[in-house]
Specification:
- By secondary structure, the protein is an alpha+beta fold.
- It is about 50% helix and about 20% strand.
- It has a seven-stranded antiparallel beta sheet, with helices on both faces.
- Strand 2 and strand 3 form a beta hairpin.
- Helix 3 crosses helix 4 and helix 4 packs antiparallel against helix 6.
- The longest helix has about 50 residues.
- The two termini are about 50 Å apart.
- The relative contact order is 0.11.
Length: about 260
Amino acid sequence: MVCESWKATLDTYLDGEVSQEEMRTFDAHVRSCASCSADALTRVQMKRAIQTAGKRFAPSAEFRKKMQRSIASKPQRRLHLTWMLAATAASILVAGTLTSAYLGTRSGRDQIARDHVYSEIADLHVATLASSSPVDVISTDRHTVKPWFQGKIPFAFNLPELQNSEFSLLGGRVTYLDQTPGAHLIYDVRKHHISVLIFPERSLKLPASLGENSLSPKKVPFNMETWSQGGLRYFVIGDASAADIDSLAKLFKASS
């Protein structure tokens, strides 16, 4: 079949392990091939599920209790100074290990939460591009697209003026992240599609470590930027260059 050669390297493409030239060629093919687009979305979701499942283990509080019981069960007797120092050092080591384990677990959970958010956003971007109807309101006029969202989502937002820029607005649709409704806008720059997704910050269950001006180029096979402004959480994602993603993000920041 014609697409067999593409699908043979699909995992490498999704992992971002191909050259920029191959990435651009693959991007163009995925946008024009419904079969490969659907296959790409399925594999992205599978990779996300495997990644999440592989990081679910966390040391339980039973470990701490076990160590405490072990120390408490030892017979009380007069120890030589050397043994007392050794016991003290061991206690410090145990406490340090427990502290490191706790901090490592918390950090690991934050990382899983961040990866989950980034993967969800990537899925929304891929699914939209693979759809036969990527936008529900088709217009290059921001004054047409913005009013279309009124009454469909529980917040208002501003769209940037694109005059004297290389970006063009294709349209928008209503989307959902963790059952929270938001706006999904599609922009075009030099034949590359960029998704801008906007959600109310309070309604999302986002990790505190997501932070401001957060970038995650290694977690998904796209360039991405996210930030919080005016009570809204913005995500800009696409196969365009990091500079283009940043330029579009700056236009949104200035319009808000």
